[in-house]
From TrEMBL:
PANTHER family: DNA TOPOISOMERASE 1 (PTHR10290:SF3), DNA TOPOISOMERASE I (PTHR10290). Its EC number is 5.6.2.1. Residues 231-240 have a biased composition (Acidic residues). It is an enzyme of class 5 (isomerase). Residues 209-218 have a biased composition (Low complexity). This is DNA topoisomerase I. Residues 17-26, 110-121, 160-185, 192-202 have a biased composition (Basic and acidic residues).
DNA sequence: GTCATCGACTCAGAAATCTTGAT
DNA sequence: GATCAAGATTTCTGAGTCGATGA
């Protein structure tokens, strides 16, 4: 694991160091340099240290003594912490300000800002340099080296960065407006509002239909999503608990009564049939069922290249497999002699894989009735676990199934990936249930680990997994009231940040030039968290994948630009789930300078922000707003971006979206959604079939263009004078030379003939099947041969056309006129356009996952507002589950709602 | 008082399953 | 209306965040 590199940099930033870095940084725009990036020579900012060496709040020297700096030379991890884990600064500020209404606190904050020379115009500088990325969703893949970086994402991120300038300006204006409005309110009311901010409930409209469409129409008539909403269910919905209409100010108590039926254990292991064996060194071996089960874990996933192709996965599996073998008496050959399994490469799981594949295939190919029966049986077994009673209400349980044993699939280079996840026994499971409620029975012959009655938590059952010692929980479904309330509070907190964002931004811009290293690092980190939506970046252990977030970035994860592209930083690191973040962004000159300073005296594997960690950062953020953490910025920026994108759509009076068709409305929504997904770096792996699917679409386009080409030739036959029409002939030649090459036409002709043959053959076979079923004689083979001559004729005709299209493409319909031909060409044009739009959309979504942002980051009320404003049925953008999850938003939001 | 560890929760992409639409 | 592939949705469980806890 790389060293933390903590405390390697100086505690204070000397003027000499600043000047040295100044000489090193590439020449930038003079105006920009003058724009609020001066070194604060006149304001001596220091880390004040308490007499006993305890860290003190950072204050201007004019107000506090400048003392020993030694503490700043001490790595963070070695430093003494602060009161109750909260740095003194936060404590001090909250001491002095916690009791003051936020609106009043703001006044003092503004006063502080006045003393600085800093201008906030830095925030107006676009994050990335303007790029000639005219097409937001390029169809052609960039030829750059970063083959696994989402190209579309990268290009779109650039355009998003340009928009961010306006988005931030709007945020600034909004924050000021909110505070101005609150200032006008009577003081008593203001205090009350701020105190209960977290508890404000969305207002439900009197007659809102919880699950209906946004515009009040009946739910969509198609699809399963709506099919399973029976009248009975609707009736139940009417009696449903609308928590958003009630006040509940107690955060610690999650429920009063709770009853449930426990958890569902996976079925016992079914040993393989006797003839299905693991092979070692070419010979079949017999294993104890326990070892066979483990071999089966690996054998059944041979097609999962991402796992079995990973040497760590294989090594860990083999290690655990050998342990199980030892414990169970090892492997034996056909004669019952012991086989020493010591070389992974000699293991052959093919037979096991084939067995499980055949099993999967058999399941897939069951008849509809069989599938239905199996599902009914499964549903019946699960029924009692599906719901629980919480405070007398029926609520859905989420993951009531105990995770089955298998191989741990750690993402990326997780050091434990491939290890055996053991079967969870009832003796490991703790049940949480209401006092006096009937405790669910453990499986026969077993006991629960414990039964507790803790109403301050939301889980129903828990156990520890054996790989990382992590706790697993059975919790309520996302559609439950508990999760809904929690979701609502999350978005309200993000909305609360809206009021403070301008001064937070001003403050960190100011701190970017602080003389105190820790402040300057924190400000730079905040800049990244705010502008790039980076995650906080907790410290990670040796036994986890090496992934980072903002605070844990190392020098090796950033590259500062050279003179050609001043003030650009390239980020290249693995984030959550080992998803690569690779992007070059433009930063302000001051941020660039800071990074240069932070790099001094460090190695690539050292921490960039060696004086910062997530608790310190979050403690600082809490000083602005109760409950503010780095994570809130992601929610805020995602929702704010979405809301601004929708405002842009609204502002487009030339092309009113309200009048557009449903498809265009969905596209517009997805386009905005995509911007949020790009901001949050939500990626997905490119589907295996993506390239072939794109090729198919491309072929379809060419096919249609070929049809146009033929029609144009027919037009020449109908009206030979067209040959003198320059524009007509140019179109025709262009189609031939630039779109349809000779080679392509030749191949297409072959495809057409082949297609015709297949069609004839299939029709023939089908007719024969029918005849046989009716007990009649099948058609003779000679009949098929006769019919196939039609394909031969087509082949001859196409060959002639290929040789001399002008002469041999004949008018197919005697009634054809120039006008009819033109109509046909226009129709083909429309169809081509539709396919091309589909291709652009498909390519744009190739590596970007829209779901995560829709599910977790975009305030659902923005979506509901969008649907109501532009008259789009909500089910077009929210699936059934999302409609259930966000019932509170659907029920309480109108078209004028604003984030 | 400090700080590593733990507990409880949210967020995340892959895989599994279901639905839709073209042929 | 049967079949099949593509697309949409749901499920699963690993990976984060962040506050609390206790040595």
């Amino acid at each position: 694991m790389p060293s933390t590199g903590r405390g390697k940099g100086p505690a204070m930033i000397s003027k000499a160091l600043e000047q040295k870095v100044d000489r090193e940084v590439p020449d930038g725009d003079e105006d920009q340099a003058a724009d609020g990036i001066a070194v604060l020579d006149d304001v001596d900012m220091v880390d004040a240290v308490a007499p006993r060496g305890q860290r003190r709040a950072r204050k201007p020297a004019v107000k506090e003594d400048t003392t020993d700096e030694s503490d700043d030379d001490v790595p963070l991890t070695k430093r003494r912490k602060t009161v109750n884990g909260t740095p003194k600064k936060a404590v001090k500020e909250s001491d002095s300000e916690d009791d003051i209404p936020l609106t009043k606190r703001r006044t003092s904050a503004v006063k502080k800002e006045v003393v600085t020379q800093h201008s906030d115009s830095d925030s107006d500088v676009p994050l990335t340099k303007k790029r000639a990325a005219t097409n937001k969703r390029p169809l052609v893949k960039d030829e750059s080296d970063d083959s696994d970086v989402p190209i579309a994402a990268s290009a779109a991120r650039k355009s998003l960065a340009k928009e961010k300038k306006d988005i931030e300006k709007a945020a600034d204006v909004t924050a000021k407006k909110i505070r101005a409005a609150e200032k006008k309110k009577p003081a008593a009311k203001r205090v009350k509002k701020e105190e209960s901010e977290d508890e404000v409930k969305p207002k439900a409209k009197p007659k809102a239909k919880a699950n209906g469409t946004a515009n009040g129409t009946k739910k969509g008539a198609k699809g399963k999503a709506v099919k399973d909403e029976s009248p009975q269910e609707e009736e139940e919905e009417d009696e449903e608990y609308k928590w958003w209409l009630e006040q509940n100010n107690d955060n610690s108590v999650k429920w009063t009564t709770l009853s449930h039926n426990g958890v569902l254990f996976p079925p016992e292991y079914e040993p393989l049939p006797k003839h299905v064996k693991l092979y070692y060194d070419g010979k079949p071996v017999t294993l104890h069922p326990k070892a066979e089960e483990v071999a089966g874990f690996f054998g059944s996933m041979l097609n999962s290249e991402v796992n079995v192709g990973n040497p760590i996965f294989c090594a860990n599996f083999f290690d655990d497999f050998q342990t199980v073998l030892k414990e169970t008496g090892g492997a034996k050959d056909a004669d019952g002699k012991k086989v020493n399994i010591k070389d992974f490469k000699k293991l052959d799981f093919t037979k096991i894989f084939e067995y499980y594949e055949a099993d999967r295939e058999a399941k897939r190919s069951r008849s509809a009735a069989e599938k239905k029966a199996a599902k009914a049986e499964k549903d019946a077994a699960e029924e009692k676990y599906l719901t629980c009673k919480l405070d007398g209400r029926t609520e859905k349980v989420g993951n009531f199934r105990v995770e089955p044993p298998g191989l741990f699939r750690g993402r990326g280079q997780h050091p434990k990936t491939g290890r055996v996840k053991q079967r969870v026994m009832p003796e490991q499971v703790t049940i949480n249930i209401g006092k006096g409620e009937k405790v669910p029975s453990p499986p026969p012959g077993h006991n629960w680990a414990k039964v507790i009655h803790d109403n301050t938590v939301t889980w129903l059952a828990t156990w520890k997994e054996n790989i990382n010692g992590n706790t697993k929980y059975v919790m309520l479904a996302a559609t439950s009231s508990l999760k809904g309330m929690s979701d609502f509070k999350k978005f309200e907190k993000a909305r609360e940040l809206k009021k403070h964002i301008d001064r937070i931004r001003k403050d960190y811009q100011k701190d970017l030039v602080s003389k105190v290293m820790v402040d300057r690092q924190r400000a730079t980190a905040m800049y990244f968290i705010d502008k790039l939506a980076l995650r906080a970046g907790n410290e990670k252990g040796e036994d986890e994948a090496d992934t980072v977030g903002c605070c844990s970035l190392r020098l090796e994860h950033i590259t500062l630009s050279t003179t050609e592209e001043p003030f650009h930083v390239t980020f290249d690191f693995l984030g959550k789930d080992s998803i690569r973040y690779h992007d070059t962004v433009e930063v302000t000159e001051q941020v660039y300078k800071n990074l240069k300073i932070f790099e001094k005296r460090k190695s690539p594997e050292d921490q960039l922000f060696d004086r910062l960690n997530t608790p310190t950062l979050n403690a600082h953020l809490r000083s602005y707003m109760p409950g503010l953490t780095a994570k809130v910025f992601r929610t805020y920026n995602a929702s704010w971006t979405m809301a601004q994108e929708i405002k842009l759509l609204e502002a487009d009076k030339k092309n009113p979206l309200k009048k557009a068709n449903v498809h265009e409305k969905i596209l517009a929504y997805n386009e905005a959604n995509r911007k949020v997904a790009i901001l949050c770096n939500h990626q997905r792996t490119v589907g295996k079939a993506h390239d072939t699917q794109m090729e198919k679409l491309e072929y379809k386009v060419k096919e249609k263009k070929y049809k146009q080409y033929r029609i144009k030739h027919m037009m020449l036959k109908i009206n030979p004078k067209l040959e003198k029409d320059k524009s007509f002939m140019a179109d025709l030649n262009n189609l031939y030379k630039n779109v349809l090459t000779e080679k392509w036409i030749e191949q297409h002709h072959k495809d057409l003939v082949e297609g015709e043959k297949v069609k004839i053959q299939k029709k023939f076979e089908k007719e024969n099947e029918k005849l046989e079923a009716d007990g009649e004689k099948p058609l003779k083979d000679s009949e098929l041969e006769d019919r196939l001559t039609a394909a031969d004729d087509l082949e001859k005709q196409l060959a002639k056309e290929f040789k001399d299209p002008k002469k041999n493409i004949a008018v197919e319909n005697a009634n054809s006129t120039i006008e009819k031909c033109e109509n046909n060409i226009a129709k083909l044009d429309e169809s081509i356009q539709a396919i091309e739009t589909q291709m652009i959309d498909k390519e744009a979504n190739k590596t970007i996952a829209l779901g995560t942002s829709k599910l977790n980051y975009i305030d659902p009320r923005i979506t509901v507002m969008f649907c109501k404003k532009f008259e789009l049925p909500i089910e077009k953008v929210f699936s059934k589950t999302l409609r259930d999850k966000f019932k509170w938003a659907i029920d309480s939001t109108d078209e004028n709602w604003d984030f």
